[in-house]
């Protein structure tokens, strides 16, 4: 693919540089989807090819995506999330929020509510899933249910499919929200932490609640059996739930609280969102504290960070060489967009984003690829780009058809009683719910707050 794109005469509507950039883009997609090599290697190779093929004048021009705030902000949030887990604050919060004196159905709702609350301080859906897996197992044992019971199946659907939805509520809630906010800020308009919360918190909570209810119905969870207080169940480990907070837990809690307050205040005074994150990581890294160490930095998922940086770099070059415009022109010839109503155009664009989502193992990577192209179409046809971007996020963030589409789903399938059919079937359910919530938000809620 790379050789053909780099050596053949350019196709109509494409310049030589545009065709070579498009060839690098498609080659990068194949490498990222098939993963014959680590993301870091394929990402560095991709930006190097941009320079080697002469599509840019310098290597620095081929790596502009790595200077994006998004790359550094995501790194900082990953470090903060790891710090929360390393001191045990995540498990402490999880156990304090749970109650065992309930029916399986009520307990399922309690678990879902606890995960939603924990998402405010723990950006990683994967970490939240790992935290709650042993708790769900212990609750299922307390109810004396079978291993493939409705409660356990529904709980693992919540951990895998519903849990990542919570990360979209806040701009700092996870990779998908960060990627979307950065693309919106650079192509549509600036958006603050508070702006994001106002726009996304109600739709996300509604979608999360509906998905949780559907998980209970999907797996037929018992609503009558109860756990008595004298059955000996303990959600704490070694009395952890009753002992005072450790020094490290207090420090991390105070630092995270300060970061959240700074993000809120900064939205009104123009403070860049990355500054509180830098301050928080710095405080947790200074010698008297040393909660974040060199080992923690080495353990960061550098693959997804390099992938995002490389994708942003490729998109910058595609825009500069006219490759994006050429792709849009081709799609417009294939699909009669000019004959479609606005809602039909939106449906087609979101369907394209869903198709791209199914190919990728992470939602943030799919959004990096799909959203800029979708927003170009929206601009061409006069569609509200902000609402479309948020709609793409809601739908992409709620769509998991294949187990590898979301790491939390992959872990839930490995540790729980879910089958491939359960994953795909419930993924279609959550995708359908996201379409409904997005439509309701676009028609009713977002016009009221923008």
Automatic annotation (TrEMBL):
Protein's organism: Natrialba aegyptia DSM 13077
Coiled-coil segments: none
Residues passing through the membrane, by range: 39-56, 68-89, 109-133, 154-179, 199-221, 251-269, 304-328, 389-411, 423-445
Main location group: membrane
GO cellular component, one term: plasma membrane
Keyword Membrane: yes
One Pfam family, short name: Na_sulph_symp
Name of the protein in its database record: Sodium/sulfate symporter
UniProt lineage: Archaea, Methanobacteriati, Methanobacteriota, Stenosarchaea group, Halobacteria
Protein topology in the membrane: Multi-pass membrane protein
